[in-house]
Amino acid sequence: MPAKTIRYLIQFCSVFLLSTVQANAWSSHATDSLSVWNAVTNGKIRPNLRYFYMNTDNAGESYDAYAHGINLGITYETIPWKHIRLGISGQWMYNIHSTSFTPDPKFPILNRYELGLFDLIHPQSKEILSRLEKLYIAYSIQKSSIKMGRQVINTPFINPQDGRLRPTAVAGIWVDWNNIPNTKLEGGFLSAISPRSTTQWFGGIGESLGIYPQGQNPDGTKSNYLGNINSRGIGILGITLKQMKPWSIQAWNMYVDQVMYTGMLQADTHWSTQQPIQWTAGFQYIEQHAVQHGGNPDPSKAYMSPGAMSRTFGAKLGWESKQWKSSVNYNRITGEGRYLMPREWGKDPFFTFMPRERNEGMGDVQAYVAKISFQWNKVPLKAQIAHGYFLLPDVTNFTLNKYAMPSYSQSNIDVSFEPKGKWQNLKFSMLYVYKKLLDNESKADKFIINKVNMSQVNFIVNYEL
């Protein structure tokens, strides 16, 4: 076991022993210490396994890639003692077999997908990778909780997603408050982060920016913010209101110290025309602004240009029955600036989001996506088909196209199978993706390879007790 993991386990045991001693000192009854012991010995141990096969096929014979990856983990959580729980989770990842992740020296295009299954910081490593993913103390009352330490959260801007062996994890204090009827409050302060596709924890939030490709500055020079962003942490606050039925309204605010502020307002509703059929609709608005110098006084090393801002508008309309779900979705990023959100932290919150591609880093975008899914009644099988058109600025428009991504269409076929009975902890998923260049003009390989005119197959097996 790596020395770092052992050190974390020692720290966890120290925290636990200290809390136990303090609990005994505060109580004058012997039964309290017995309760602590019961909380520990009756805690739940939950193993998890994740196998991921990914295969990317680019047009032509070059730059194709594949990878077989596996993740094994174990999570332990005590049962509540005076509303207090302790938890720990260790995860181990291994590259079973893959194509080489070393760029071709004649044309160094980095692998974009398969490499992300493992560790972007140590791309050539064939060792077993480990991460102490969770280490927390939680206090729960009724339906609410306050959790402090390492954990996984799910927000519009920082979220787990499902495209890697392990999700993004964070460290800090997080509140999930549900004791007010028809109201949900979420929020907290995050002081460290371990992005997806890494095993490392970054004590400075700014240090996590730039692990994924950095793209270009608005003036066309190469972005250089990796290791150059100063930020003491992230503050997030979200509220969901369901008092105005059938409307559900949520508002989110995220402040990244010395870097940027992002706010989101979203409204969702549904109504029935005839049972069991119902219509659904949603509206979304996001606005963000640079804070101070955008992370660094030197514009070439800043994450967001000083004074920069962006807006996005989204809408969806859907039709649902017991087995069918369908929707048409639209998103517009205005030409006022790039919508920026570190790809290391999670997926886009847009209605038009489709797995394996992003519109982050773009401005002046028009996106159209249609989705339809079917759930079988007697078989635990679900299938979804999605198709989208994404109209982006020209690849040479550095001001609004950070990653030089051309306009494209994308088609996804997603099938999942979740057995029942004794196999109910297993889930099998298959995702097929095809992306096509919309512009008929010929473009250099750097605008095509691993971006468009490519297909990808993902096969995933999850087991979690």
Helices and strands in order, then pairings?
Layout: H1 3-26, H2 30-41, E1 44-58, E2 65-77, E3 84-98, E4 129-141, E5 144-151, E6 169-177, E7 183-194, E8 234-241, E9 248-256, E10 260-274, E11 277-290, E12 309-320, E13 324-333, E14 365-375, E15 381-391, E16 408-417, E17 426-437, E18 454-464
Antiparallel strand pairs: 1-2, 1-18, 2-3, 3-4, 4-5, 5-6, 6-7, 7-8, 8-9, 9-10, 10-11, 11-12, 12-13, 13-14, 14-15, 15-16, 16-17, 17-18
What's the quick description here?
The chain is mostly beta strands and 465 residues long.
Describe the model.
- The protein is mainly beta and 465 residues long.
- It has two domains: 1-31; 43-464, Porin (Beta Barrel), CATH 2.40.160.10.
- The protein is 8% helix and 45% strand.
- It has two helices and 18 strands.
- It has helices at 3-26, 30-41; strands at 44-58, 65-77, 84-98, 129-141, 144-151, 169-177, 183-194, 234-241, 248-256, 260-274, 277-290, 309-320, 324-333, 365-375, 381-391, 408-417, 426-437, 454-464.
- The protein has an 18-stranded antiparallel beta barrel.
- Mean pLDDT is 90; it is low at 1-30.
Report the C-alpha radius of gyration, rounded: 23 Å
Rounded mean pLDDT score: 90
Report the principal-axis shape. Answer: globular
Enter the CATH topology name of the largest domain.
Answer: Porin
Provide the number of structural domains.
2
- The CATH superfamily of the largest domain is known as Porin
The low-pLDDT segments are 1-30
Question: Helical region count?
Answer: 2
Q: What letter string, H or E per element, gives the SSE order?
A: HHEEEEEEEEEEEEEEEEEE
The count of strands amounts to: 18
- How far apart the termini lie comes to 23 Å
What structural class do the secondary elements suggest? mainly beta
